[in-house]
Specification:
The protein has 347 residues and is α/β, with parallel strands linked by helices. It has 2 domains: 30 residues; 248 residues, Rossmann fold. The protein is 42% helix and 12% strand. The chain contains 10 helices and 9 strands. It has a 7-stranded mixed β-sheet with strand order 1-3-2-4-5-8-9, with helices on both faces. The chain has a two-stranded antiparallel ribbon with strand order 6-7. It is elongated and about 85 Å long. The termini are far apart.
Length: 347
């Protein structure tokens, strides 16, 4: 104790800074570090327990809200009492006994209503039109549970093959997920290929936004074990034109397991190298304002098409649902002209 007393008397004379004095005193009178560590550990554990409890509460609340949205989708929308299909979501079938037909494949969680006025325009141009309703779609979101990529591909393949057998000339038009499926069929050597292929905002990858932080497929893997349903509300309507938002029929909530089917379709397209075997004339329509499908991915796949007759039209006013948005008239005209023998189609 002698040394600290001498230092206390000498410090004012030597003008030693207070910081040095504090350090000297702490060295000779160290705090109880074990006690500090124990308190810190207890606080950290308490904080982690509160965070875990809050996370569990949020997961439970989210599951309840999304399940409520599923029930609402299954009961609120008017539907056919016999088929259970929402009114306006029915498959399109325009059969006038012509020699050529067009098959339309709609997008994920939506219905043949994705195509807007295109079926009527094709009918007026002399095409029979078929747009099947995909498995689990257009009825109730709960029906999507257990639907796999094989189920979606089989539904589309069945309708396409039936039309292909009946008609001399068949064109295939795919929107969003339907665009990826159409690309698979167009590059499948085991299927009688379509004569022409038109793709509208095809899903080749999800467009990444900064607030996603992680890729969309990673979120699907992380959340599906704890979240049974995902809720997206009216955000799912990717239409800039206000009047067009009510024209799109879709699920506001869906089973998280349905994500796996969507990602599996994209993976299957890549694994089979389908784009490299697309040799028929191709028209691809996309938009720089599309917040769902990646424009860069569409450009990459388009570059891989070996077709000698391929064209790409890029709009800048429409969101994902181009056929309901500001550029709908130009998009429909481009598709009809591409398919017409006396137009830009050059049959």
């Amino acid at each position: 104790m002698l040394l600290p007393r001498l230092y206390e008397r000498a410090a004012p004379c030597l003008r030693v800074p207070n910081l040095v004095s504090c350090c000297f005193l702490l060295f000779h009178n160290p705090p109880d570090l074990m006690h500090v560590t124990d308190n810190l550990t207890k606080r950290v554990k308490r904080g982690l327990m509160w965070a875990a409890g809050l996370l569990i509460a949020l997961i439970v609340c989210y599951n309840l809200l999304s399940f409520r949205a599923v029930l609402k989708d299954g009961t609120s929308a008017p539907r056919d009492p016999e088929t259970g299909i929402m009114l306006g979501a029915e498959p399109v079938r325009i059969d006038r006994g012509r020699r050529r037909a067009c098959v339309l494949l709609h997008g994920w969680l939506t219905t043949p209503a994705d195509f807007g006025a295109l079926p009527q325009a094709l009918d007026a141009a002399g095409w029979d039109v078929y747009a099947p309703l995909q498995a689990g779609h257009g009825t109730c979101p709960a029906n999507l549970r257990g639907v796999t990529a094989d189920d979606l591909l089989c539904t589309a393949r069945r309708q396409y093959c039936e039309v292909r057998e009946r008609y001399d000339e068949v064109a295939l038009v795919g929107f969003s997920m339907g665009g990826a499926i159409a690309t698979i069929f167009a590059g499948d050597e085991a299927v009688d290929k379509p004569d022409r292929l038109a793709l509208v905002a095809p899903y080749y990858a999800v467009r990444h936004h900064w607030h996603y932080v992680l890729p969309a497929r990673w979120w699907s893997r992380l959340t599906s074990p704890v979240l049974r349903y995902a809720w997206r509300g009216r955000i799912g309507v990717s239409v800039n034109r206000k009047e067009g938002r009510g024209e799109v029929l879709f699920y506001t909530a869906f089973p998280t397991s349905a994500d796996r089917a969507l990602f599996a379709i994209r993976r299957r397209m890549i694994e089979r190298a389908a784009p490299e075997r697309v040799t028929m004339p191709v028209l691809l329509l996309c938009s720089t304002a599309d917040h769902v499908s990646s424009l860069r991915a569409a450009e990459d796949v388009f570059a891989r098409f070996p077709s000698a007759d391929k064209r790409m039209v890029v709009f800048n006013r429409s969101d994902h649902h181009i056929l309901h948005d500001y550029d709908r008239a130009q998009a429909i005209e481009a598709i009809v002209r591409f398919l017409e023998p006396d137009g830009d189609g050059k049959h």
